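Below sits my pick:
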Amino acid sequence: MTGVEAVLLTIVTASTPLLLAALGELVVERSGVLNLGVEGMMIVGAVAGFAIAYATGSAVLGVLAAAIGGAALSLVFAVPVLLLATNQYATGLALTLFGLGLSGMIGEGFVGTPGIRLDPIAIPALSELPFVGRLVFGQDVLVYFAFFMVAAVAWFLFRSRWGLVLRAVGDNHTSAHALGYSVVRVRFLAVMFGGAMAGLGGGYLSLVYTPQWVEGMTAGRGWIALALVVFASWLPLRALIGAYLFGSIMILQFHAQAAEIDVPAQFMSMLPYLATIVVLVIISRDATRIRLNTPACLGRPFVPDR
C-alpha cells in the first residue's frame, strides 16, 4: 500500500460518519425542524451498535441496532417538539446531553472490551487492483451505503412527490396543512430518519473506524455534521463534498504527527472545529445564498389551531 493510498483510505473512514449524520439532519431541516441532538443520537448509535455486535457476534446486527438506537432516541426529541411545541433549540441540546449520559451508562461495562469489526467487501480481482482496488472496490457496506444515500436523498427531495411535500412543509407548514398534509406526521418521519442516519454514523465509529467502545468517542462529530448541512446549503451533493473536506482535515493531524511536523498536537486536534467556525463565518457573509435554500419554517413550531 502506497502512502497516498493509505491517506485516502483514512479520509474515507473519517468522512463516512460525517456524511451519514449530515444527510439525515439535512432531511430533518428540510422538513422545517432543527435538531441539535445529532451528537447525542450518534453516541447512542455507537454504543447500541457495539453492544449488539458484541452480544451476537454479528457486525451486521450491530449496524441495524445503531440505526434503531438513533431513531429511538430521536423520539425523545420528536414527541415534545412536535406534539407539545417545545423549543427546538433547547430540546435538541437536552437530547445531546441525555444521549451522552445514557451512552456512558450503557457502555460502562464495555470499556476495554475488543469489538466486532464490520469487514470490508472484497470483490474478486477488482479489490486486488493496484491503488484503486482497496480504495474503490474494498470498502465496507456503510461506505457504499453513504454514497447511495446521497443519490437517494437528492432524488427523494427533488424528484419525488413526497420529497416535494416534505419541502413544502419546511417552507410553509401553514399552507401544507391547509392543503391537507399532516405536518406533524411528515416531520415525525423526517426526525426518525435523521436519528437512524445519525445512529449509523455513530455505529460506523464503533464498528469500523475504531472497533471498540470509548465513552465520548463521537468527539464533536455531531456538531460538525450540523455545520455541514449549512455548508452544503441543504443540498445532498454539497454535503458529500463537505464531508470529505472536513474528513480530510480531521485526519490531517495523524499524518502530520507521523511525518514529525513540528506543530503542537493540541493545535492539530482543534483544526476540524476551527475549520467549522471559519466555514460558517464565510458562509454567513453570503446572505443571498443562505436565504435561497434555507427552509423558511426552520426552527418554527407548528400548532394547527394557531
Summary: The CA atoms of residues 231 and 280 lie 7 Å apart. The mean pLDDT is 89. The domain at 3-293 is CATH 1.10.3470 (ABC transporter involved in vitamin B12 uptake, BtuC). The first helix runs from residue 3 to 30.
